[in-house]
Amino acid sequence: MQMFRMREYVRIGSPEDVQAFRTTWIERGHALTGMLRLPAEFDVANDPFFGRGGKIVADSQRAQQLKFELLIPVTDPQRKTACLSFNYHMDHFGRIWKLRCANGAIAHSACIAFGMERLALALLHHHGCDVDAWPDDVRQLLWGDSHERIAAELECWRQPADAPGSDVNGDEKQRIY
Length: 177
Hints:
The protein is an alpha+beta fold and 177 residues long. Helix content is 38%, strand content 20%. It has helices at 15-35, 54-63, 92-96, 116-127, 136-143, 147-158; strands at 6-13, 41-44, 67-72, 81-90, 108-115. A 5-stranded antiparallel sheet has the order 1-5-4-3-2. The chain is globular and about 55 Å long.
């Protein structure tokens, strides 16, 4: 899928603030895909749009772990589709647009994005075209009052990485980042 819409959230601030923002959204992304019962795999990634000399930039982006993606099988189990992305731009945009923090330091930025059609296709691929046949908890999450369930799932992810635990579906949680 070459063209798709994204729901994107951007954070601008200190390096610590934007990295904490990205970490929080990585946890939320894991929680969301788990609650939607989608088999997601977390991996380091790079942007494909660097043009000439792009391999060096892409390799650097991967080495610095500036971009992560949650990958879900949509059409081919061997070629998973990036449905969520989590990016840290460091001070790139802060320098270009002269963005400063309250203390005068150059602002850093991060963004997270949800591929809307990609997530919809993943839901259809894994749960089928008959929405009434989808798991009750998935339908309730998407169309019901799910505030308490989401809060419980996020609390599972906030536990220390070495603490035993499972998510609200009873699946063991994994911290990969």
